Amino acid sequence: MKRSKSIRFKILGCLLAISILPIVVLFIFTLRNITQFYQAQISTASNNEVKVVTSRINNIFENLDGVMTSLIFSEYDGRNCMLYICENETRENLLTAGQRLKNYRMYEYVCSNLIGNNQYAEGVYLFNESGYTYSFVRNRELGLEKDYEESVWYQDLMKSESLQVTKMYRPDNFPPDQQKIVIARRFTDVKGEHSAVLALVCNDDIFDNIQDNSLPWGKNFVMDAEGAILYGDSGDVSLKESEIQEIIGNESGVIIKKGSNDAYIYGTLNVEDWNIVNEVSFETLAQVSNKSTVYLIAIIVAILVFIIVLLLFTEKVLLTPLVSLASIMSNTKDIKQCFENKYRTRQDEIGVLYRCYENMLKQINQLIEEKYVSEIQFLKSRLRNLMSQINAHFIFNTLENINCLAQIENNQQIVTMSKSLGDMLRYSIEYERDEEKLKTEVKHIRQYINIQEIRFGNQIQVDLDITEELLEAKVLKFMLQPVVENAIEHGLTGQEMPWKISIRAIRENGSLMIQVKDNGRGMDGETLVQVRERIYHPDTISEDARYSSIGLSNIHKRIQLLYCDKFGLAIDSRPGEGVTVTMTLPFHIS
């Protein structure tokens, strides 16, 4: 029995499906919820913190914008300082050294008051139409005035419609890792006739002081609207291009790094659409999640162990007795009187089945024994009757006497017919073997042809094309005679002379093919289809007196029963060209 059709396979499969599938579903569902909760905690904490960070930085820039506005509209001795200098420092009006000194004092006074205590502002530059630059720096020279018209921040300011830009700036006399932030604004004098540029230079402490929060911050950097790194070490950034585009395209969010407990949180600033990006670690949350997963796996393993123990118990108590009983029942023919009943003492349904089967087997054996005895006695009686009616030696002796009398009377036809008939009878009653050598079958055919020649009064020409090796091959007994008989009865009878029957044998791919062909009338296509149907499917069509082909059908069945379905008999014919019958058997000599 196939394993897939066994009751053991089906019951165990059902039990496994009923018990393990819900556990697997529960495990996947719970693990998915844990992961989602973990990610939700990360997202919530990160979004809250990034909002705090971006809000703090935006407030700093708003304060610096207020400083810029205060610088532009500040007054000194009743005069608006910056607007006054902008109005005086024109291309047409060249100031003297004394006038510029006076302006410088006013300019420094205003700048020192407004940025003196500011922790981010480090210098103020005023660029006029005359080309003269006023500067105020608290500590070191920042060098912003050098070739300022060629600098990126100045050119972007001239192109900008908002009249203010914020850019990163690296002074030449500062270390490479120190950057400044330039906030530059264009403004005009009171009359709107002349313009100037006020630039406020700030340090990068704006971005350094963002870690006053509860998250374990790592590296942080600032990215512009194009994805370029403005602040921070770009070599430490391991973001992919798709992740950079996500940061640029969204206001805020979290990017969790696969295979680690780190993530990048980001938010968009109000300044030039800059993005503040920080790397954070969620190792604590990951540990909690891992512990929950370990506990869940331990529970699942314990449940699976319990299920396996239950399945083994079911296998031993229920399935093994049923499978054993099925095996015993399938081999009942090998059991003589009884079988070993291991479960006779069980009081459940299994014990009842075994006891009932044991009793049934005893009754069957008893009935079989009684039936066999009666059948044997009947067959012996019938055999004795048959033996008394027909005595093979009596038939052979009678044919031998007829043969001797025919020789005395010099009647050669009777001699030939009686001799051939006797040989055929001897060949026919030898039932011990199903196979004979091909040469024996051919000899039998020659004897049959002798009788038919006398019967019809015509000579039948038999052409043999068989090698000595193939004559020794084993073939089915009584295989050729029905084929030759059909050829004479249905193909040659009523035809003009000569009558020809050719018998050919070939060996091909381990098979022996024997072909019997006559030169009779042949068959049309419709009749050939009917004959083939009768040979291969004899029970599906009605009896046909002329083309019943009972002998051919029997040969085909015998070949397939003795050998296998790939061997058998084939028939082919055309009107006026006779009939060809081909028998295919396995080639063997033994």
Distance between the termini: 36 Å
- Largest sheet, order of strands side by side? 4-3-7-6-5
Mean pLDDT: 79
Instruction: Spell out the CATH superfamily of the domain at 433-586.
Output: Histidine kinase-like ATPase, C-terminal domain
Into which percent range does the helicity of residues fall?
A: 40-55%
**Backbone CA Rg:** 57 Å
CATH topology of the domain at 433-586: Heat Shock Protein 90
β-strand amount: 15-25%
What is the count of DSSP helices, taking H or I runs of 4+ residues?
15
* CATH architectural group of the domain at 433-586: 2-Layer Sandwich
CATH uppermost class of the domain at 433-586: Alpha Beta
Q: What general outline do the C-alpha atoms trace?
A: elongated
**Largest sheet report:** 5 strands, antiparallel
> Which class of secondary structure composition applies to the elements?
alpha+beta
Count of beta strands:
19
Low-pLDDT runs: 385-391
Q: Can you describe this structure?
A:
By secondary structure, the protein is an alpha+beta fold. Among the domains are: 73-171 and 185-198, no CATH class; 332-379; 390-432; 433-586, Heat Shock Protein 90 (2-Layer Sandwich), CATH 3.30.565.10. It is 51% helix and 19% strand. The chain has 15 helices and 19 strands. It has helices spanning 7-72, 81-88, 97-115, 152-159, 205-208, 241-249, 283-330, 349-389, 392-408, 412-428, 438-456, 468-471, 480-492, 525-536, 550-562, and strands at residues 75-76, 79-80, 121-127, 133-137, 164-169, 180-188, 195-203, 217-223, 229-231, 252-256, 262-268, 275-281, 435-437, 460-465, 474-476, 499-508, 511-518, 568-573, 579-586. Strands 4-3-7-6-5 form a 5-stranded antiparallel sheet, with helices on both faces. The protein has a 5-stranded antiparallel sheet with strand order 9-8-12-11-10, with helices on both faces. A 5-stranded mixed sheet has the order 14-16-17-19-18. A hairpin with a 2-residue loop joins strand 16 and strand 17 (511-518). Helix 1 (7-72) packs antiparallel against helix 7 (283-330), helix 9 (392-408) runs antiparallel to helix 10 and helix 10 (412-428) runs antiparallel to helix 11. It is elongated and about 175 Å long. Residues 385-391 have low confidence and may be disordered.
